[in-house]
Amino acid sequence: MKRGVALACAVAALFSITGDARPADPPVPAAQLDLTGVWGPYRAERESDPALLPPPAGPVVLKPEYAKQWEARRAAEADAIRRGESPGSPATLCVPYGMPRMMSVAIYPVEIIQTAKRITIVTEAFSEVRRVYLDRPQARIEDVPPGYYGRSVGHWDGKALVVDTIGIKTTVVGYQNLPHSDQMHIVERFHLVTPDVLHDDILIEDPIVLERPVTYTVAYRRMPAYEMVEFVCDNNREYLDQTGAVRMRLHDR
Amino acid sequence: MLSCRCLALLAAGAVALPSPALAHHSFAMFDTVNKVTITGTVTTFEWTNPHAYIEIDVPDAHGTVKHWSIELGSPSILLQSGWKYTMLKSGDRVTLLVNPLRNGQPGGMLVQATLSDGRVLGNGPGAAPAQATPPR
Pick from A168, A19, A194, A12: which is nearest to A103 by CA? Predict the structure, then answer.
């Protein structure tokens, strides 16, 4: 009993020092894979090793009613581009990408911050943030308020980090502009293919929209010296005209 | 003096562009086949997101000044191709090679900038030139 009281007092003292109601997140165990650092896209460039590039993406097979809409939209956008019109998107208006597109935006890197209980992923483009909890179970999908990043939990499977994400709102534009329902479920498998090349194998399931899961891989290279650049979208001159095409606002002298 | 001439570089390979600005929008509003060279005086250099901009006054052969707005990549993209936010300031004279807006308005997307000290800079990794040339 006395030992119990002493322990409670010690814990209370610790919290009073830190000012936090929870103990600090301990550092990553030395034996575990540490993904902490900045990772840039590993792309087909002169110095790239073809063996380390992402494997070809899997086919996209939507349920017929969604396939028709998706194909019609792609055709309309292709026509617009042929006419010299830029089709707009939420990103044109500086709305963040959300999951899963935020994981592969042009040449912008991502930063991974890893502790024993959490992985935090910060993207450079639009400064988006994901939090992956390693010590908690996934919630029921109906208990997650739909958002851009949803709720992610993860676990280690040997040397791979497996991340499960649900709760992406349906207005978030998907991979290849795919539509999705509120039942979309994303499973990622992060694994090193060399000490400095990381692959994120992404699987997207959606029982309402997809006939079968969509799979693709995003590859990253380690950028040990890189310092993330801030990206606050405070000078957006692009706007959409009445047809939805992108226009550039010019300044006078 | 004005230097605004359409170069009409039709070789597709010569106009291959990097994908930096795809973070934000497609390039379709710019004429990526033809290029225009403009020489003038910088009024502002905006080191901002989602794009940086060069605002520039360009005089024609008769001394009439037209103002152009030139879009660049984001600061992140520019840093990766040798730019610094201090490289341009109001009053600098520069020559810009740009893909003009298709609608004919005085705006465009930067292909290459030649600064007053002779340095030549592209508009993102993979753009020509990939690296800034040393000052003369």
Answer: A168
Confirm or reject contact between B84 and chain A (CB < 8 A).
no
In total, chain A counts a number of residues equal to 253
**What predicted TM-score, i.e. pTM, was given to this entire model?**
0.82
Cβ distance of B69 and A105 shorter than 8 Å:
no
Question: Does B101 contact A248 at a Cβ distance shorter than 8 Å?
Answer: yes
Instruction: Say whether B26 and A87 touch across the interface (CB within 8 A).
Output: yes
CATH of region A37-248, choose from 3.30.930.10, 3.90.1300.10, 2.40.128.20, 3.90.1480.10: 2.40.128.20
Q: How far is B34 from chain A (nearest CA, A)?
A: 13
Q: What is the pLDDT of residues B96-135, one digit of tens each?
A: 999 999 999 999 999 999 999 999 999 987 554 433 333 3
Range B5-121: architecture per CATH: Beta Barrel (2.40)
Low-confidence ranges of chain A (pLDDT < 70): 1-32
| Nearest CA among A193, A194, A199, A201 for reference residue A220 | A199
